[in-house]
Structures are given as structure tokens and as C-alpha cells.
Amino acid sequence: MTNVINFIVAAVLSGTPLLFATTGEILTQRSGNLNLGVEGMMWLGAFAGFYTAYKTENPVLAVLAAFGLAAFGALIYAFLTVTMKANQNVTGLTLTTFGIGLSLVMGYAMIDSAGGAPKVSSELRASLAPADIPFLSDIPYVGKLLFQYNPLVYLGIAVAALSAVYLYRTRTGLNVRAVGENPSSADAAGINVTAAKYINILIGGGICGIGGAYMSLVTANGSWQPAGIVNGNGWIAVALVIFVSWNPAKAILGSFIFGAFNSLTNYIPASVVEIPKAFYQMLPFVLTTVVLIITSIRKSRENSQPAGCGINYFREER
Amino acid sequence: MPEHTITTKNAAREQAVRIVKRKELNTWKAVLLRAAAFVLALAAGGIFILMMGSNPLEAYAIIVKGAFVGSVRNPLSSIQATVIIAVPLLIVSLGLAFAFKMKFWNIGAEGQMIAGAIFASYFALRHSGMPHVLLLLTMFAAGAAGGGLWGLIPALFKVRFGTNETLFTLMLNYIALYFIKYLESGPWQGTKGFASIAQFDLNARLPNIGGVHAGWIVALMLVVLTYLYLNHSKHGYEISVVGESQATARYAGMNVRRIILRTMFISGAVCGIAGMIQVSGIDYTLSMGITGGVGFKGITVAWLAQLNPFVIAGITGIFSILEKGSGVLQSELGINAAMTGVLEGIILFFFLGCEFFIRYSFVFRKRRAKSS
Question: How high is the ipTM of this complex?
């Protein structure tokens, strides 16, 4: 029993950065823009979050800074693809190159001025430590399973839930989905296509950045190790978006499932089944491919990528 | 697309500036615009270098010097290193040009390169006793076959079920990547206890020609072959028709499915060749770092070059100079080599932005300037 609970907790902890990034990318793609810059924006968030936490020792400012710098990266993407009609795939990939490069260069400069791997203060790490809610956290099993996570986990779930409400239960969200499916109809219906795209790309990018900050502050335990902060999680998030069929509510469970693959190797003893570790890491991508194929075979428009995704909208082109 | 006249609906509230799609902009103007974008990008990058506390002009000089000026003992060493960086990027970008010309979004060059490398490595590791030339030719063919087959999978699903190729090819990259990881600590493990594959026999290594492995000759040949295939062959013509409109192609009696499958096989095969050359010419083994991100970078190179093989070669040159030269920044100015990503990103952003001015023009009200 303890083992099972430990496993679930580990899955949630390693799924949380994916949850942020996936939610962010869903918001972006729902407005009709495929942004392959998730990995880059997570790196930007990882750096900005870490640097702010390191300098100000304020976790709230750190999260805001991560959101801000990643949203700035998303702004470059939005400006180029929405206003300048540049190719979305190429722009997104460039954002990844740029984001990783920028964070690494600044990160190394930070290491140089600190004279070694910088580490955030123990007070700050304490503020991101597992919660200890009176009474609730102490319930046997349930307490550990539900009420002993760090605050960012709850923030991630809240952000995903709010995004789901926004997309499916508000008029603005309906408009955004219309823009993502068919921008010219949305435009004809009086929706401001450009504004909808900008807002979603920026907010989505910022949320990806919080996922990055989670990785540098929680996963890496608050010390800057430039080699493997984000570690490809941005790409797993792009896969997850497909896996959860562009729905932030499903992303909550989906992220934790993908997070579970990370920790699965530690919990399935080799004596039971011997599966090479590489296959566990491959699993998210295999499953996503299978989902992608099945939805295309079933021609399920509900569960496939927004139809306008990848195509830039130019009003005068009909 | 012709310029639109103002529709009656909007006539009352006509905007001061309208944006319309241009007809072909003449070549030298387009070149001039791109040159301006490049200069602006260098200026923007310079501002960043300045913020990092270094002199941008000095930094750029170091980059160019680092890419060309070698050591006293081997004056060519830096140029050779730059060429070594350029070879896989050039080949992959060429491979992608095939798919992109067909508007097939192959984001899977990483995976196709890896598949090619795996196929080639099989012969290098298990059949290293073959005669040298025969072994290298077999590895070359295996590399092309591996990459081609890996590229064929998403194409099959695309023509059969309309499966989104951008996402599918992207996923296949990681499946291929983790397959190397499996081989490293599984069937191809070199030494017990170490997750790595053994070094290739001398027999399975590409010979050096002019101080650089023979891959550079393959790359240059591919530039010409790609140009001829895409611009002066029936297949190339079919690819561009399918890319423009599948309906037109079908109406003209073309077998669209077969064209898509064939072209994706070629696209993947060329990327697979790049994988074979990396393992056989540089790494002498197969590892997870084989691609060095070239498969993604090639997408931007091919797109920027507008799929023109000779322009692809030129842009590859610029990026390779940047990458080789940035490595020297660390020792000279204390700026990390990751700077190459920042500069590349900035240059690409400016190029992407400048495309807008090449494709669209502004029309001002009162017909002051109908089109510049």
C-alpha cells in the first residue's frame, strides 16, 4: 500500500511540469497556432524563475517572472506568426533554439558571477516544500495522496481546471475555439481573430514557463544545473496535447499518467517483468502515436487537432 | 493573387493602410531585404552581447576567426572543423527540401537520421569483416533504406487515413531516439556495465579526403542531385504540383499517393544518409547524441532557403561558421558556446519577419502609393 501511494505521489510530482506545459500548449493550439517552442519557453521560465528566486527569495515573484519571460518568448512567436504570417513550425522551432540558448548563456553567466552552481536559499526551498495542512495532511494514506504536495502542484491543477472552464464554459473560450477551427468564419462572425490568437499564445506561453520554473526550483531542488533542467519535457508536453485530445481537463490525469512512466522503472522490480528502461521512456511517444492514428482512422474531429492549426490566417486571402 | 479592390462593405471604413499579397518581388530587391534583415539581426545580437558585458564587434570577429583560422601546426584545422559541422546539416536540409516542396511537414528528420544510423551501424558492428569499400557501400545503402522506411511510415498513414504528419513525424523522432538507448544497454552493449555501443572497426570508418571525412563529397554531390531532381525531372515536377494542389495533380492524372510515398521515402533516405555519415565518419559508434539537433535545425535552413539547394548550402555555411566560431567565445570572452543558439535564433527571427515584406506589400489610402 505504501508503495502504491509513493508511486502515485512520484507520478504527480514528475507530471506537474508536464501539466503546466500541456495546458499552455493547449491554449495556444486551440487558437489555431501550433507552437513548437514549448521546450524553449520552459527553459526561459526555468531560468527566469530560478534567477528571481535566487535574487529576491520570493517564490511568488519567481513564478511571475517565469510566466513573464516565457510569455515574452511567446510574444516573439505571436508577432511573427500572427502579424507577420511567418511559418508556424519554423518559428516555433526557432523559439526553442533561442530559448534554450538564452537560458544557457544567462545561466552560465550566473554561475560565473556566483563562483559555482548557484542555489536558492533554504527559506525559499521550504516555501516550495510539501504542504503540511493541519489535520488534512495527517489523515492516513489520503493525507499523503492528496494533501502533501508542494504548492505548485495545486497551482498546476487549478490552472488546468480554469483553462478547461475558460475554453468550454465561457463565451470567450467558445470564440477562441472557433478561431482555432475556422478563423475566417470566426472573423465574419465579428470575433477579433488577431486579439484572440495573441492573448492565447501569450498566456499559453507563460504557463509553459511556470512548468519550466517547476523544473529548476522543485525537480532540480533549487540548484542550477544547466545540463539537464528541462530535459525534453517540452516535447513530451507536445505529445501530451495530442494524448489528451486538446482538453485541459483531461490533461490533469494525462500528465500524471505520463509522469508515472518516469517513475515506473523504480517501482516494477526486474524480477517481475524485465523491461529495458528505454522502453518506459519511449512509452509516452508510442502511446501518443497510437492515439494520433486512432483518432485519424475514426475521423474524430472532436478529438483531433483544431483544423486551423498550422495555417496562418490572412483576411484578404480567400 | 491579384490585388483586391476595396469591397463595398468596408468602403466606408477603409483603413489607412492595407496589406496585400504581392506578385513576385524581383530578385535583387528580395536579396537586399534579406541582407538588411541579416545586418539588423547582427545588430540585435550585438546589443545582447553588449548587455553581457563584451564588445560585439570583437565577439563577431572572434567567431569568424574561430571558424576559419586554424592553429599554427595545422592552419586548416578550423575550416575542417567547420566543414564537419556543416556536412550533416547540409544533407538533412536537402532531404527535407523534398518533403517540404510537396508541403508535407516532415518534422521527423531527427528520427530518420537515427534510423539510418542504426541500420548502418548494424553492418558496422556485425559484418565488419566485409571488404572495406563493399562494407561502406552496404552501410550507405542501409542508412538510406533505414531513413527512407522511417519516413515512409507517417506517409503511409497520411495517404491512407489522413493522419497529421507534423505530429506523427515528431513522435517518431523520440521513438527512434529511445531505441538507441535500448540498444546501448541491450543487444548492442559494448562493455558490460556501460551503457554504450562499441567503437566501429577501422574497416567501417569513412576515409578522410582533404583532412575531412568523405561525407563532404557526398554532401556536395547531393546538392547538385537534389537540384536536378527537384527542378529538372518529371518526379520533381510532380512533387511541386502535388504541393500546390492535390486536386490539380489528381485531375492531371497523377498518382498522388504514389508520389507522396515515393517522395517521403527519398526525403527520409537522404536524412538517413546523414545518419550513416555521422556514425561512420565522426562518432565511429552509435550514441544518443548522434544528431546534435541537426534534424530540427535543418527544417529552419530548408525553409529559409525556400528549398533552393544552393541557397541551402549557403545558409548551412553561415550557421556552421556561427556554431564553430561560438565555441571560441568561451576561452576568449568568457561567453558560453550556447551563444550560438541565441545568435541563430535572432538571425532566424529577423529572416522570418523579413519574409513578410517580400510576400506582402502595403497599400496606402488615396492611392498615394499604390504599390511600392
Answer: 0.92
Judge: B107–A285 Cβ closer than 8 Å, yes or no: no
Mean pLDDT value of segment B134-159: 97
Count CA atoms closer than 13 A to B243's CA, side-chain side.
Answer: 19
B91-119 average pLDDT score: 96
- Per-residue pLDDT at B149: 98
Alpha helix positions (H), B52-101: 56-68, 77-101
Q: Which of B167, B343, B345 sits opposite A292 (nearest CB)?
A: B167
> Can you give the pTM of this predicted structure?
0.91
Instruction: Flag if B339 and A98 touch (Cβ within 8 Å).
Output: no
Closest C-alpha to A209, from A38, A26, A14, A55: A38
Residue B188: domain span: 86-240+268-315
Question: Is the model's pLDDT at B3 over the cut of 50?
Answer: no
Number of domains in chain B: 1
The 10s digit of each residue's pLDDT in B168-184 is: 999 999 999 999 999 99
A35 at interface of B, judged by CB pairs closer than 8 A: no
- Which of B161, B182, B336 lies nearest to residue A297, judging by beta carbons? B161
Chain A nearest-CA residue for B5: A316
Whether B365 is covered by a domain: the verdict is no
Among A177, A50, A144, which Cα is nearest to A106's?
A50
Cα(A79)–Cα(B353) distance, integer angstroms:
9
Contact state of B185 with A276 under an 8 Å Cβ cutoff: yes
- The whole-number average pLDDT for the span B18-25 is 74
**What span, in angstroms and rounded, lies between the C-alpha atoms of B179 and B165?**
21
Mind listing the pLDDT tens digit for each residue in B308-317? Answer: 999 999 999 9
User: Is A99's pLDDT higher than 90?
Assistant: yes
Kindly state whether residue B104 falls inside one of the protein's structural domains.
yes
Q: B185 and A100: CB-CB below 8 Å?
A: no
Write down all domains in chain A, each with its CATH number in brackets. 2-297 (1.10.3470)
